[in-house]
Predict the structure.
Amino acid sequence: MTTPATSRSLVLFNYDWDVIGFARASAALGAPVPDHAGFDLFSFPSNAHLARFDMEQFVAKLARRAKTAGWHSVVSHHEQFGALAAALLAEKMGWPGTPVKAVLACQHKLYARQILAQVCPEATIAAQVLDTEYGGAVPEGLSYPLFVKPVKAAFSVLARVVHSREELHAHTRFGAWELWVIRHLVEPFERVFQKRLGPAISAHRMMVEDNVNAAQFNLDGYVWQGKAQAFGVVDAIMYPGTQAFMRWDFPSRLAPTVQQRALAIAQTFLAAVGFDHGMFNMEFFHDEATGKISIIEFNPRMASQFSDLYLRVLGIDLHGCSLALAQGEHPDSAPRSRPSAGAASSLVYRSFSPETACPKPDAMQKARFAAQFPDGLLFAFPKDKGSTARDFKWLGSYRYGIVHLGGDDFADLQHNAHVASELLGWPAPYADERELDSAKAHVTAGLASTGLHFNPLRPLGTTKLRST
């Protein structure tokens, strides 16, 4: 068996967090930076490849190149195409990987919900297919409010609560260009799904489900030799009155006992769909009043956006762990580093009005941010007018920036977030100062139950970053 330090890896659909993460993990392993293949769905002209993309042809071409290129493993954390393409290539080449049928079962949201209802009915949200093609007439007899989303999609596209038949009708009207994009995003998956798991409900559909009002969380983990293990849980904090993510916070406020219940549900579902190897991310609700856990969906890949948070707080590099798994090694074989923070966040900056101009930090502002927060990550997402309008239609908001920061504890993290936001000219993604006290209380209680103190991982010699 090749080792992570000597094997050459292939990463599919590699951009944003993955570009940074795989370069960082490869350096820690003393391995070459992985080769990459695929295209960026969010930039032109790269996304022009969508017009002719065929999943199986793409994989077959890579398989022909593998021996010459010296690849011994493949990995991808790209939800739309990459995770499935990586599974197909690993299967074809006999490399370690997540089984293709397991990836398909997770990514077809209604199929996954049906399996979950069989094995964990207590954690299932009632759902049904919206029995009409894109843009078709909305059926009568539905009870509102309800949550609507595509059977196959990523990035919360077209997922929202609707309160009436008229609102659902308006939400499912698409122009010719929108329909073209939607069909080309779904069809590569649909062809493979129908061959491997069909006949089943087409992925070219929307689905509706009961609307759940509860706090949302993400369980990040991996499966090794059929057993699911957790890295941890990341909390989703929403903009008030919306279902748009405002922040992702780590460590979690969720009690350890609830986290263990979530892992048990994940183990049961993943075993049911044959997911016996690889990384996963489970999105779920937890109702604090009733204790009920409700599963939103399973993603058969790592949530790349969170890798940096685990690295800061726990010293665990999830990208390194995923490379190890792809090469048939246990994630524990990936190098660990000294934690640099007691708390970390992925801060999401959004506009909720198409008429509001989004501030764009200039070179000087970016330089000041980099000087003040040398370990901070900054992503800006400038878009043209048409793309921005589509974001408002499909997502209900326009995400124009993301910042990753750490702090000694949640108080220090919040301070750093305000300083960074001022430097960039962006409003800090905190809804209420009282939120901090609640966060500290929950985390302190959770850590106390494990015998740890609040901020147990603060490294020696950490320099606090303050405004000048």
